[in-house]
Amino acid sequence: MPLLQTKQIVKSFGGVHAVDHLDITFDGGKIYGLIGPNGSGKSTLINLLTGLLPLTAGTVVVGDSLSISNINSSDMATYGITRTFQNVRLIGQLSVLDNILVVLTERNVWGALFERHGKLHLDQAETVLKKVGLWEKRNEHAENLSYGQRKLLEIARAVSMKANIYLFDEPFAGLFPEMIKIVSNILEELKGSGVAVVLVEHNMDLIRGLTDYCYVLDSGKLIAEGTPGEVLSKENVVEAYLGK
Ligand SMILES: Nc1ncnc2c1ncn2[C@@H]1O[C@H](COP(=O)(O)OP(=O)(O)OP(=O)(O)O)[C@@H](O)[C@H]1O
Ligand SMILES: [Mg+2]
Q1: What is the pLDDT at residue 111?
Q2: Binding site membership of 41 for ligand 1 (Cβ less than 6 Å)
Q3: Distance 89 CA to ligand 2 centre (A)
Q4: Which of 64, 76, 159, 217 falls 20 to 30 Å from 97 in CA-CA distance?
């Protein structure tokens, strides 16, 4: 059963179709590559799937029945969808640990700050922060972390949300090799747990190494889909990247 499907979804900005009649399906237990040149609509698609932008047309189907055409970002967690941003978004004034606890306790920022955290949540936060190598930094304000560390914290936060679909918008960009290894392991682990993982990435070695199936966008349109080996050998995909 597909976890998420788009049916002819469109997003127009003025006259430009940033996303142009896309039909895409995500199943569980797979890592999907969402690739295409700059400006091809990858982030816009993720913004549509998480309700950050309203759809111009089309519907998103969650599970096998729930059809949505007016997506509300506050409903996304309920639908089991979570994401990271191409430009990291954390709560800079909160500690590393609190950035995770806000998610685990599902409280708003103030509620989470003043709540006495149960041992369960602290244990979960410790596990995920150790996984990304940030446990030692748990009391630092998020804004004091390096760029790479902030990316890892955002990934840790996304992973802390129990979801069925995880959308990662360029999680590897700007990371050192040892951090790339950590994030790759996290994506593989999520896949092993049966959820759908969607990876936007420009590095084709990572796409080949990690993904099971790829969707290729160009000017908002789906120009190819298949295994990474299949799509990356297609002439129209190579042309889209090199420019015609
Ligand atoms: N809020 C917006 N208002 C107007 N145009 C937008 C907006 N967001 C995106 N666009 C346009 O939509 C198109 C797709 O942009 P998008 O950011 O989705 O591309 P992308 O595939 O994520 O690119 P990149 O690989 O550079 O991150 C571009 O032409 C972009 O300029
Ligand atoms: Mg983008």
Answers
A1: 52
A2: yes
A3: 14
A4: 76
Cβ–ligand 1 contact at 87 (below 6 Å): no
* pLDDT tens for each residue of 125-163: 999 999 999 999 999 999 999 999 999 999 999 999 889
At CA 6, angle to CA 8 and CA 50, rounded to 5? 120
pLDDT beneath 70, residues of the chain: 106-117, 244
Q: Which residue has the tokens 């806000």?
A: 102
Instruction: For residue 117, give the DSSP letter.
Output: P
143 vs 148: CA distance, rounded Å: 12
Q: What is the CATH number of domain 1-80+163-244?
A: 3.40.50.300
Give pTM, 2 decimals. 0.92
Best residue for ligand 1 mutational test, from 20, 43, 49 (most atoms within 8 Å of Cβ): 43
Could you give phi then psi for residue 67, rounded to 5 degrees? Answer: -105, 125
Residue 47 Cβ < 6 Å to ligand 1: no
Token pair in block for residue 65: 């029945």
First to last CA, the chain: 38
Domain layout of the chain by residue ranges:
1-80+163-244, 90-162
Q: Are 99 and 90 in contact (CB under 8 A)?
A: yes
Cβ of 53 below 6 Å from ligand 1: no
According to the model, what pLDDT value does residue 106 have? 65
Contact between residue 45 and residue 200 where contact means Cβ atoms under 8 Å apart: no
Question: Could you give the residue ranges of the DSSP H alpha helices within the chain?
Answer: 42-49, 96-104, 109-114, 119-131, 147-160, 177-192, 204-210, 228-232, 235-242
